[in-house]
Amino acid sequence: MRVLIVGAGFAGVAAALAARRAGAAVTMAQSRPGASSLYAGVVDGELGPAQASGLEELGRALGLRLSAGTVVATREGVVRSAAGSDSALLELGALAGRRIALVDVARDDWDGPLLVRSFAASAWARASGTRFELVPLELLEKGHQRRVSSYDFASGFERAERPAWLCELLKAHTGPDAWLFGPWLGVGRDLARELTASVGVPVGEVTSPPGGVAGARFDLRSAALLRALQVGFAPAPAFRVAPGAAGVRLELTDGTTLAGDALVLACGGFVSGALELRGALSGAEPAGLELAIAGLPPAVARGELATSVSSMFGVDLAAHGRRLLERVGLPVAADGGVVGAPRVFAAGDVLAPEASSVGHALESGLRAGARAAAAR
Questions:
Q1: CA 111, CA 119: separation in Å to the nearest integer?
Q2: Torsion sign (Cα): 252, 343, 300, 18
Q3: Distance between CA atoms of 20 and 26, rounded to whole angstroms?
Q4: Which of 126, 152, 305, 316 would disulfide-bridge 311, Cβ 3.0–4.6 Å?
Q5: How far is Cα 209 from Cα 197, in angstroms, rounded to an integer?
Q6: When comparing pLDDT for 304 and 167, which is higher?
Q7: Interatomic CA distance for residues 281 and 117, integer angstroms
């Protein structure tokens, strides 16, 4: 059994794991980053018990802490609940009623005084009696580090001598029950875990900005998992799906054609370019939201064809609301297969009509991979 997968984000990686666990060989077409590479480190969406074993394995491999009721702090100053998070984020739920030190650093993208006031004023902090206090730390080695990206700043702490130095710096400040950093605790190295073990109190981060360290960590960890699963790669965009002699053919833009027994479309949504607005202002064709891969049924938006024209320029987001973009995708049958496309399954952002989230991507990816591996 050979399963083809388009996309290597959360949904695609989950589908690959499920298909390989079912004994299928997997080939993945992946050409560009998508929304998974931009995620902030927070897992939203409901994680059901049906895929518990697969989710547990994915969580370990991708460095995710999957637990309903997780509480995290965002870099925008919000304390919020989630279904899980990157393991580097500080889990506030276990620290209710304690004293949390927020690191203050003279970076242009970091306003410690404003953040500590916002966290302290949050409904969660007031209800739990949790205290946030600002602790200045001299973490900048050179002046330019106040302006470099959070990714570059985080990478700097992975140099051989820096973790031990940072550990001693934190140990010199007695009193806090936990330390809350910006998104700077390493990219390929799990510094949050190392510091927690060495300092003796929890050490973690706030959420990352789009394109920050959380997304970079996902890219590194998912690549390692796919290598361990022995997934084959075709580094070119898919542009057409067609019936094959034994199942499905996937045509790529570089002229390659992949043949498989089943196909999982985990190609993302608008961020990755898998869903797009076509025909607007051209006058040559009806305008609408469509899938970029040919040979598949039309996309739907909340159960209606997404190609219908609702204004003279195409889809009227002012009338329907921007959240309509989270409801556009391929329709699926009860067995998870794409309606009108035999042996083709959808997962993640390309699946309608559920809202996008990391949790939905993981759940739907595991289901689609398992069903594709069992397709006959």
A1: 12
A2: negative
A3: 7
A4: 316
A5: 26
A6: 167
A7: 47
Beta bridge partners of 265: 6, 346
Two tokens, residue 4: 């083809």
Mean pLDDT of 229-233: 96
Burial of 227 from C-beta contacts in 10 A (0-12 / 13-18 / 19+)? exposed
What would the two tokens of residue 304 be?
């209606």
| Spatial separation of the C-alpha atoms in residues 332 and 337, rounded to whole Å | 5
Question: Under a CB-based contact definition with an 8 Å cutoff, are residues 360 and 45 in contact?
Answer: yes
pLDDT band at 319 (very low <50, low <70, confident <90, very high): low
Say what the pLDDT of residue 303 is.
58
Is 283 a residue whose pLDDT tops 50? no
Where do we find the tokens 């022995």?
230
The residues, ordered by sequence, that sit 6+ positions from 157 with a Cβ below 8 Å of its Cβ are 163, 166, 184, 185, 186, 191
Q: 99-104 and 79-86: which strand pairing?
A: unpaired
Confidence of residue 50 (pLDDT cuts 50, 70, 90): low
- Look at residue 108 and tell me whether its pLDDT is greater than 60: yes
